[in-house]
Amino acid sequence: MKYTLTGDNLQFVTLEIQPGEMAFAEAGALVYMSGNVKMDAKLQGGLLGGLKRTLAGESFMTTHFTTTGGPGLVSFGGNCPGKVVALDITQKEFIAQKDAFLCAEEGVKLDIAFQKRLGATFFGGEGFILQHLSGEGMVFLHAAGDLVEIDLTPGQVYKVSTAHVVGWEPSVTYDIQAVGGIKTALFGGEGLFMTTLTGPGKVIIQSMTLAQLANAVMPFFPTQSSGGNNSGSGFQIKF
Q1: CATH of the domain at 57
Q2: Residues 211-215: contacts with CB under 8 Å, at least 24 apart
Q3: How far are the Cα atoms of 39, 99, 163, 238 from residue 27, in angstroms, in the given order?
Q4: Residue ranges making up the domain that contains 68
Q5: Are 209 and 222 in contact (CB under 8 A)?
Q6: Rounded to two decimals, what is the model's pTM?
Q7: I want to staple 96 with a disulfide (CB 3.0 to 4.6 A). Which of 34, 62, 100, 184 is the partner?
Q8: How many structural domains is the chain composed of?
Q9: Does 112 map to a domain?
Q10: Does residue 237 lie within any of the structural domains?
């Protein structure tokens, strides 16, 4: 399936669907589609599949897209400023953070996975429930910030700030490690733990998490005034 990535820090992906092909996406991810594309919400994988997607941060139902009368175009975008990454998981598997899935070809299977280490569950930042991608075809993930893909060699270790890991191949060992002494933990700005990734395998890291983005723009949201003036709206904008 042909695809095009458009944009820089507000990326979206456009898929070219041929007759007989099908793509599916997270509900609400559609940006636009050509007139000959038909969309249909389905409970992919039955009730259990819907419940699993909900646990993994996705919608209960997925939206399926097909075309008639020739090739059709359908475009999908994320819910925050960020990047889209394309992965061919044919004869491969990939583990992704909650909410990362955007869209995929028909042959891709979306399931859930669990953190294997208790410490990583509580302190790793990616959560206990993850997304497990397998099957055949292209899958597209979306995450806040800019993304970098790194192919770790056997035994190679990367230390990553918590919650900045978008995904990794199952061959990668995911764990956490204390940042160091008390002074570093209290004043280093990185918290008590960092995520450690040990190769071999592909990892995807993001420059900014959705929580960091929210914290950055929060001071500029309208705030309720504490004054007693009842003639105004009661809100002021801070700059």
Answers
A1: 3.60.160.10
A2: 211/163, 212/144, 213/80, 213/81, 213/144, 213/145
A3: 11, 12, 24, 34
A4: 2-214
A5: no
A6: 0.80
A7: 100
A8: 1
A9: yes
A10: no
